[in-house]
Amino acid sequence: MAVDAPMRVVLADDSILIREGIARLLDEEGFDVVAQAGDAEGLMDAVSRLRPDLAVVDVRMPPTFTVEGLRAAMGLRKQFPELAVLVLSQHVETTYAVDLLGRGARGVGYLLKERVTSIATFMDALRRVAAGGTAIDEMVVAALMNRSQQLGGLDELTVRELEVLSLMAEGLSNPGISSRLHLSSRTVESHVGRIFSKLGLAPAAGDERRVHAVIRYLRGDTRVPPHQSLGTQLGSES
Amino acid sequence: MDIVDTDAGRAIPATAPFAAHRISVLALALWVGACALIAAGLAMLWLSGATLHDLIRGGHADAPFIAVIAGFLSVLIVQRRPRNPVGWLGLANALANATHFAANAYGVLALVHTQNSLPGGDFVSWLVTLPLPLAATTLVLQLLLFPAGRPVSAAWRWVVYLACATMAVAVLSIGVATWGRQGGGLLDGAPAASFGVLDAVSNATRLLLAAIGIASVGSLFLRYRRADGIERQQVKVLAYGFGIGGVGLLVGKAIGGDVGGWLEALSPLLPAAALYVAMRRYHLYDIDRVISRSVSYAVLTIVLGAVYLGAATVFAWALAPLSGGSSLVIAASAVGTAALFQPLRRRLQDLCDRTFSRASHDAGRLMDGYLRSLQEHDPGAGALRVAAAEALRDPTVEVGLWIQSTGTYVDETGAPLDLAPRLGRVVTPIDRHGQRLGVFVHEAMATAARPELLVATVGRAAPAMDHARLRAQVAIQLAEVRASRARIVAAGDSERRRMERDLHDGAQQRLLAAAISLRRLEAHAPRSPSSDDDAHTLAKTAEDVEAALLELRELTHGLVPPILADLGLEAAIQSLAERTPMAVLVDCTDPLVRYPQATELAAYFVVSESLANAVKHARARRAGVSIRNLGDTVEVEVNDDGQGGATMAGGSGLMGLRDRVEAIDGTLTVDSPPGQGTRITAVLPAR
């Protein structure tokens, strides 16, 4: 995707080695890495100062080396609604994905850190997020699908429809799905329509709303509010 | 010293019960004989028209008291200490006094009152003076030998021999000297007879005996100075009794008349009272300890009989001047005695209970019962304290058990016990063969009021104490092993965390950085047929590095799942359920509650291992996980619909789980009947 003004990125990771590696990669792929931060505070500072288009954030940062990055990312999303945020993590958990999505899936991504090495897919996800779309790691989606399937929530879907549902959950658009599965966009559209009617979901306008609805369905959270644990912790902090 | 058996390890004297019984009966018979002589004497004095007043003024009233009361105490001493001469000497003294009294009474009746109309009066008069040196000597010997039956030192042995020799000479000389003078002149109160050689000898022995008597009082004081502890108290009380009693006797003799007669009559009661106090308060001869209730009641009955007789006699005497000895008097005296008898009997029985201590008897039985119960079952930690509290009648009793290895006292559970001195608390040690077993810590007030309870309890406590001590020792060792197991598990956990951190900060970062570089190189490598091999190698290397990354990620996740530390048990279990290839229903009572780190980790491993087993070995299709917060504990249960038959043995990993759970004081139970699924329940501390 050629752009006139390169996309401005802030990068946060406590490891200089990784930070430098990803910065160089982004640089080569035509992004403008305007700042690098080693912790959440530096990240917040850089974002509020430089107002980048995109923040790429590692979950594990000082001082506790647990989920500082995730909390910082959620804070950023609240404070700067236009900012796209991609969270990278050594381990992915559906709980964190759902917490990160919050009320909407606009301009947000949550990927396993090692996805960085599949340059093409990573860049695809990065651009999707930067453009206001969603990127959820396939491992998160697989776990959600597994759970839902075991509990009988997806019994009526065909194998092909399950594939399409997975990609929808990852945040792919209909064209993205059709190119990934080598299907015509018309076929993809009809799959999507059937999936929604089989699952009893109202057709969603916009890819990111679709992601949100699908993930909540897979979580079994359609009737109860999404997992509140991280939100509660954040609430008590701020 | 065999005065107080507070060193509890000593075996109870192993006299054959039959022999002990025979000795008791013999002592009792001697005393009953003395009492009978006294009763007969009183009756004969009454028949010869003497009044109580005469009895008192004549200085005869001391003999009945000595024979009945001192004799009774002597019976008790003999029962408890058959080898101790003090008791036998007391009985001999009682018999001598009683013989003297009865012989004198018969003499009065036969020779004076009935004018020789009764047979044997002259011979009996000979028996009046004969027992007197015997009575004096046995009294002196008692003083010399009290309380253990040994002279105060080796040198004092000679005084004992001298006393015995003097007594023999006195009896012989008096016997021979008075043989020829049988008759009224030998009776009490008669004018002194002529002075023959033998009389001179007998008078000399009398003086000698008096001197030895003074020396014996001196020996008692010497003994008091040398003794310590409870023996000192025993001797002190007795010395007071004899001292005051002796002074009373001398003063009574000196002033004469009614007052002097009463003083003489009552003075012998003082040593007897002192003896009683020493028995009761200072456990003299442990009379208060071992004597059985039935024996004391038997004695009581006899005492009551004697008292009844005495009372009836006294009544008749007192009423004689009023009515001139009619049958009415006898009836009235019987009625009066009966009226007095009931409250007296109740008082005496009370006294008997308190003195011969039903409580201390019960205390001893309680401790014995506790020991016997050990043969049946283990009463558990704290049972000795309960038994001791009951026996000592002090609910605040603490049991301190001596742990040799650490040099400290612990309670029955093995917890350290603070023995720092506290106001109003007394520490009583329990030793065996000089080896410390433990202590009782109790209220000073409670045991001061009932010292006999302490003696009875302490005397039986050694085996129970030893058992409790060994039990506590095992408990301590078990606690040590548990603590070390917990430390091992905790060390393992912290090692897991350290490894996870090191891998994350080191190998994982470097490999990821390397993979990024390799992929960048691959992306920018020029495409040409000549570099196909290089490009292929590059791609292959990148894949290898990524495979290593994947393996590392799975390894570190297995070490310590990060979500567990971050969001707690419920989130971690949900995550586990999502990744398990079967239907897992998670039911959690308090999803947001955080438990101790060790508990969360143990619970997580229980669930992950159980789910893995359910998938791998049991071929289950569904599983349920429930986490119930029970306040002090959290119960984690995993059940599946698999084929069951899981056991702790073998490589199921359940053994390791149990070790981990028990290391933090939890329990793990496995219920897995073949063909009926598996239920694994762990109860873990929640605080």
Keywords:
heterodimer, A: 238 residues, Rossmann fold, Arc Repressor Mutant, subunit A, 2 domains, six-stranded parallel β-sheet, disordered C terminus, B: 687 residues, alpha+beta, five-stranded mixed β-sheet, four-stranded antiparallel β-sheet, 23 helices, disordered N terminus
Detailed description of the structure:
The complex is a heterodimer of chains A (238) and B (687). Chain A has 238 residues and is of the alpha/beta class. Chain A is 53% helix and 13% strand. Chain A has 11 helices and 6 strands. In chain A, strand 5, helix 5 and strand 6 form a beta-alpha-beta unit. In chain A, helix 7 (159-170) crosses helix 10 (207-219) and helix 8 crosses helix 9 (185-199). In chain B, a hairpin with a 6-residue loop joins strand 8 (667-671) and strand 9 (678-685). Chain B has helices at residues 17-47, 52-57, 62-80, 85-113, 121-129, 131-145, 157-179, 197-226, 229-255, 257-266, 269-282, 287-290, 293-323, 327-355, 358-376, 383-392, 444-449, 451-524, 532-559, 562-567, 569-579, 597-616, 654-663, and strands at residues 398-403, 408-410, 425-432, 435-443, 583-588, 622-629, 633-640, 667-671, 678-685. Chain B is of the alpha+beta class and 687 residues long. Chain B has 23 helices and 9 strands. In chain B, 67% of the residues lie in helices and 9% in strands. The model of chain B is unreliable at 1-18 (pLDDT under 50). The chains are: A alpha/beta (238), B alpha+beta (687). The A-B interface holds A 15, 17-18, 20-22, 24-25, 28, 60, 65-67, 90-91, 93-96, 113-114, 116-119, 143-144, 146-147, 150-152, 227, 229-230, 232 and B 501, 504-505, 508-510, 512-513, 515-520, 523-524, 542, 546, 549-550, 553, 556-557, 561-563, 565-568, 571, 574-575, 577-585, 591-592.
